[in-house]
Amino acid sequence: MDGTSIIDALILGIIEGLTEFIPVSSTGHILLAGRALGFENPGKMFEVLIQLGAILAILVVYAGRLIQLVRTLPSDPTSRRFVAAVFLAFLPAAVLGVLGHRIIKEVFFESPALISTMLIVGGVILLIVDRIRFEPRYHDVKEFPLWLALRIGFFQCLALVPGVSRSGATIVGSLLMGTDKRSAAEFSFYLAMPTMAGAFAYDLYQNRALVTGDELMLVAIGFAAAFVAAILVVRSLLDFVSRHGYALFGWWRIVVGLLGLYFFVYRA
């Protein structure tokens, strides 16, 4: 491990934290950025494992709500239904992620053309959805019906393709099924906790033979950077999307996708 690797890990960690909870695809960003930096790691585990920093960030920011949720579980049917809703939404991507782990890591992660194209397509979809004037029926994530949560979970499966965006897929799915912009983003936060924790645990298990001291040090650096950056995003995103919507993120995706196609496909 040299100084360049440490700087690369720091940069990628910041990118992970800034992009994990906004609908631009954190995985797509760090895969393209890693390619641009020449950053190599066995099994592409760094890109998955540094997500733990973003998980910890949302746990810290939402600590009070999570503690209250746990306290009310035995006595409050609304809390129990909400936990069941998050679990149901988590299941589809968990099952497909395990079944398709090899093709995701060995094929999808290695295709800058696919990643860039998905960034552009997702950006166009965000711009279209943001212009639609929905009449939301659901404003409180704890009131989401179980059927709605499960359908949001199926939308999350689209994000198994890097460049799609986990938060983008769940937010768009939520909006199309009647939630308002704020609750769509908030449910995506809650769903991120089991989804990212599961991806972290499974990828660590799959790549346990590749883990070395140097690799762990780089992951730790990326983790710390992702944690700090993600806290800033989580604390401000809900208010931002409530006021401004998602158009900015749509244009962001399109620009990054076009740059990816130019540098990694056209000039390759």
Automatic annotation (TrEMBL):
Principal cellular location given in the protein's record: membrane
InterPro entries registered for this protein in UniProt: UppP
Protein's UniProt keywords contain Transmembrane: yes
Record-listed E.C. numbers: 3.6.1.27
EC class (word): hydrolase
Catalyzed reactions per annotation: di-trans,octa-cis-undecaprenyl diphosphate + H2O = di-trans,octa-cis-undecaprenyl phosphate + phosphate + H(+)
Gene Ontology BP terms: cell wall organization; peptidoglycan biosynthetic process; regulation of cell shape; response to antibiotic
This protein's UniProt keywords: Antibiotic resistance, Cell membrane, Cell shape, Cell wall biogenesis/degradation, Hydrolase, Membrane, Peptidoglycan synthesis, Transmembrane, Transmembrane helix
Membrane topology annotation: Multi-pass membrane protein
Membrane-traversing stretches: 48-70, 82-101, 113-132, 144-164, 184-204, 216-238, 244-265
One GO cellular component term noted in the UniProt record for this chain: plasma membrane
Subcellular location: Cell membrane
Known function: Catalyzes the dephosphorylation of undecaprenyl diphosphate (UPP). Confers resistance to bacitracin.
Entry's family note: Belongs to the UppP family.
NCBIfam families tied to this protein: PRK00281.1-2, PRK00281.1-4, undec_PP_bacA
Additional detail: Bacitracin is thought to be involved in the inhibition of peptidoglycan synthesis by sequestering undecaprenyl diphosphate, thereby reducing the pool of lipid carrier available.
Record protein name field: Undecaprenyl-diphosphatase
Organism: Bauldia litoralis
